[in-house]
């Protein structure tokens, strides 16, 4: 057998612009992996069909955000020459795969998926429905989205899926489908590996409000496209340690979102460049590392304002080049759409090949060359 290619598939729902949670949870890693040259093929999907599973009443939101996600991707460093950026709904083969995989998963298994459970609750779908309100009750498509994700991943024969921690149950579900499919129909599909961020702070970046997850749907985001001033304002309003009332009070670093963001973004060089944030009239510090900042915060005497000013500089330092590239791309939308069109074409060809293999394995490829002749011969035996 030919040596297994190394292939990446990952993506995002076009339900809004991308935020710094996406960046540290997945996007930054994708760009690194892309630039490492260690992968043979990279597919990055704008999951509009998946976004429709809980936005059926607002397709315009999904449509509007496709270009926003594409702009965020390319500004963050995804390079169309090395990564195929594509739109999920335009690859019809994915839906067909989903239909066959649905038979390999039980309703009970889907009901146990912890991320789906959480998201059903978050969206208020669990409230009893009297049949009059569309909002109550879970759309079947939404309930089945882990199966559709398995199609996305396996269609591209992905070996590696770089995503945030909330996606772990989806990858596990995919692996189960692959094993089941291969056991029933013969070895056909590739079992993928999840690639989680190696920095604990990035697994699930909390929102600016301190809630467990920064999420487009919760409105607690710092967007990659926010201006420097917006970033400063959002950081100023951030949740810290509620018991750190006086500057002199000892503060808590654990569960303090400002420090979580620093864990995710701060680099040693930032202390030299933004050290003046810690120089004040009442107190002045010369920190050389994040550990020193944390130690001082724990001991007391270091105020939230200083730490927040530093964080805003650190974030803007990361976001500035992304913003700059975005501004340029925003002026060249025909190019961005052309990238998506071409990426989708490549994605379609790949998915079509996998679908053909799947149908062949299931022996439902009745009209493939040579197959029909065989079929006629086989069935004719019955009537001899
Ligand atoms: P929605 O609210 O529409 O579900 P979302 O903000 O949760 O949007 P997704 O498009 O569902 O974003 O997630 C895309 C990718 O970004 C996934 O790999 C997910 O794990 C990752 N991700 C999203 N939010 C975070 C976060 N706060 N921290 C780390 N990774 C995240
Ligand atoms: Mg999500």
Notes on the structure:
The protein is mostly helical and 384 residues long. It has 17 helices and 5 strands. α9 (168-185) links the parallel β4 (160-162) and β5 (193-195). α8 packs across α9. The longest helix has 30 residues, at 333-362. The radius of gyration is 24 Å and the shape is elongated. The mean pLDDT is 94. Bound molecules: adenosine-5'-triphosphate (ATP) and magnesium ion.
Quick structural overview:
This protein is mainly alpha-helical and 384 residues long. The protein has 17 helices and 5 strands. The two termini are 41 Å apart.
Break the fold down into its secondary structure elements and pairings.
Elements: E1 7-12, H1 20-36, E2 41-46, H2 48-52, H3 59-76, E3 84-87, H4 93-101, H5 107-111, H6 114-122, H7 140-143, H8 145-155, E4 160-162, H9 168-185, E5 193-195, H10 200-203, H11 228-236, H12 257-265, H13 269-274, H14 290-299, H15 304-330, H16 333-362, H17 371-382
Parallel strand pairs: 1-2, 2-3, 4-5
Adenosine-5'-triphosphate is lined by residues 12-13, 15, 21-22, 25-26, 163-164, 166-167, 204-205, 213-217.
